[in-house]
């Protein structure tokens, strides 16, 4: 057995909120991830980015998304002065770095890093350092019959004709198959990006049923309960306050469609539980091979919980998005699109999301959601387990980190060099810093954190966070005492705000941010509004 370098497993959830795991305060059953946390460390102050493709680009390259070529999503608008929506030729992936050091590499799950999900190209997984791939190339689809399902470079959507097919389970099965079939003399890197719990709301009926009584208590009571557990667990700072219910959300007492709302959240919870069970199968195989001690396992989410309505754009145009949507179930029934109380969520014939009120619960104690750079959009659970790595067991670690720090941490832990070239071009070097010393209980050296997405932007320096929503003024928060962003200090401390704005702009220029007004103009010239411009 090769003990010279540790194996690496990266598990990624899609649209999971900060508080959606038991070990971060949730009532959802996540025993396998809770066990992973008990055997490893959790980070209190880790941030992702506000959106799926940018997060994946940053996670796999250690770059800010704009440097990696994906500033919004995977739409190619480069012809008109926008982003290519494709991984840059100069962006090394973690798979390429580890492959060069002798690792066997595999990806199982959602890719969403190529502007062309139909024709094999240089941004597909097997062209970016992965020896094998099974999963979807687009961002979301039915869990019963996902579109763009691919093995290697071959479309295998026909495999979903099996009536028992379910995508979350299939990802686990394919990951376990890789582990069983791999070269046991080489270390391995396994990247497992789930689509759960991203909409559409699809789950097994028996899992859904377990949650119906739980969610009849409503979002107000459950936010309070989650917040109390977070305080007990220490996954939020002692001074953190629970943000008020989103002002655009009515109280649970006044909600007229309680049973439908219960059903929506019950499906979402079931999706999280089913992802946890799938992760349990992968971890069990690593245990069976006696590789757990020598394996770095990381779990996180790609962005905060999603308040997305479905459909995102006009229904007529949404129906045309055949790469994420099927018009019929496998047995010929029409798929009912949209968040409608008359449509029961969960089955293959439904296609909806769980809505802002439940997303507000998922992001407890923070406000805002996916797409925004406020804490609800960029805060994620982060678990790292590595029994041989000298980590404290079961502890919550402080220190402000973000996605750009994951590649430097892994490279540091496995002690491999980062190549200086890729395909004959100078390779971008990772922007972040290793977290390893902090994770081991050493010096917690904070460094600036930076974001931009569809004009939403933020910058963290020490105790200060500068943040804005596109089209609005910059806000300033002391996140040491106010991580829920409840007291804007921009007018009280203008000198701090001005300094951070200048630093934010310096980074924006360095990484190639295209002003969102320019992106909006590209779509306006095509007769399309802002909902198309954001992806």
Summarize the structure.
With 535 residues, the protein is α/β, with parallel strands linked by helices. It contains 17 helices and 20 strands.
How does the SSE layout of this entry go?
Blueprint: E1 7-13, H1 31-39, E2 41-43, E3 46-47, H2 52-61, H3 65-68, H4 94-100, E4 104-110, E5 132-136, E6 149-151, E7 154-155, H5 167-181, E8 188-193, H6 205-209, H7 212-215, H8 218-233, H9 258-288, E9 295-301, H10 315-318, E10 336-337, E11 350-351, H11 355-362, H12 375-378, E12 382-385, E13 395-397, E14 401-402, H13 406-414, E15 421-422, E16 425-426, H14 436-439, E17 449-453, E18 456-461, E19 464-468, E20 475-478, H15 494-511, H16 516-524, H17 530-533
Parallel strand pairs: 1-8, 1-9, 2-13, 3-14, 4-5, 4-8, 10-11
Antiparallel strand pairs: 2-12, 5-6, 6-7, 9-12, 15-16, 17-18, 18-19, 19-20
């Amino acid at each position: 057995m090769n003990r010279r370098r540790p194996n690496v497993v990266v598990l990624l959830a899609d649209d999971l909120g900060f508080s959606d795991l038991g070990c971060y305060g949730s009532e959802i059953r996540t025993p396998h991830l809770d066990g992973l946390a008990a055997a490893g460390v959790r980070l209190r102050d880790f941030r992702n980015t506000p959106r799926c493709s940018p997060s994946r680009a940053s996670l796999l390259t250690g770059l800010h998304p704009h440097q990696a070529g994906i500033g919004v999503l995977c739409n190619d608008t480069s012809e008109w002065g926008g982003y290519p929506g494709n991984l840059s030729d100069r962006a090394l992936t973690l798979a390429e770095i580890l492959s060069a050091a002798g690792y066997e590499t595999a990806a199982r799950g959602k890719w969403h890093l190529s502007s062309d999900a139909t024709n094999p190209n240089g941004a597909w997984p097997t062209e970016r350092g992965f020896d094998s791939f099974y999963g979807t190339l687009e961002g979301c689809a039915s869990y019963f019959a996902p579109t763009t399902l691919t093995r290697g470079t071959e479309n295998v959507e026909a495999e979903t004709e099996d009536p028992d097919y379910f995508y979350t389970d299939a990802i686990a099965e394919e990951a376990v198959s890789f582990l069983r079939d791999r070269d046991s003399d080489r270390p391995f890197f396994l990247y497992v990006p789930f689509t759960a719990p991203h909409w559409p709301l699809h789950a097994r009926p028996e899992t859904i049923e377990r949650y119906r009584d739980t969610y009849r208590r409503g979002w107000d009571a459950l936010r309070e309960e989650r917040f109390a557990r977070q305080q007990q667990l220490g996954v939020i700072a002692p001074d953190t306050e629970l943000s008020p219910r989103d002002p655009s959300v009515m109280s649970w007492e006044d909600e007229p469609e309680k049973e439908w709302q219960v059903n929506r959240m019950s499906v979402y919870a079931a999706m999280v539980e089913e992802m946890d069970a799938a992760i349990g199968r992968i971890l069990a195989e690593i245990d069976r091979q006696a590789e757990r001690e020598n394996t770095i396992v990381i779990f996180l989410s790609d962005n905060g919980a999603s308040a997305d309505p479905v459909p995102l754009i006009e229904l007529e145009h949404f129906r045309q998005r055949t790469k994420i949507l099927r018009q019929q179930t496998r047995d010929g029934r029409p798929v009912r699109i949209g968040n409608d109380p008359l449509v029961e969520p969960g089955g293959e014939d439904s296609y909806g999301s769980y809505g802002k009120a439940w997303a507000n619960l998922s992001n407890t104690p923070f406000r805002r959601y996916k797409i925004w750079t406020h804490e609800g959009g960029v805060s994620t659970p982060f678990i790292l387990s590595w029994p041989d790595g000298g980590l404290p067991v079961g502890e919550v670690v402080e220190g402000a980190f973000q996605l750009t720090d994951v590649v430097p941490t892994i490279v540091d832990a496995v002690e491999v060099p980062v190549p200086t070239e890729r395909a004959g071009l100078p390779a971008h070097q990772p922007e972040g810093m290793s977290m390893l010393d902090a994770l081991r209980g050493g010096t917690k050296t904070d460094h600036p954190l930076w974001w931009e997405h569809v004009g939403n932007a933020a910058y963290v320096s020490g105790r200060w966070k500068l943040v804005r929503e596109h089209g609005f003024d910059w806000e300033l928060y002391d996140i040491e005492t106010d991580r829920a962003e409840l007291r804007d200090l921009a007018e009280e401390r203008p000198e701090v705000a001005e300094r951070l704005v200048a630093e934010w702009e310096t980074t924006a220029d360095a990484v190639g941010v295209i002003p969102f007004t320019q992106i909006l103009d590209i779509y306006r010239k095509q007769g399309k509004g802002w909902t198309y411009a954001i992806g």
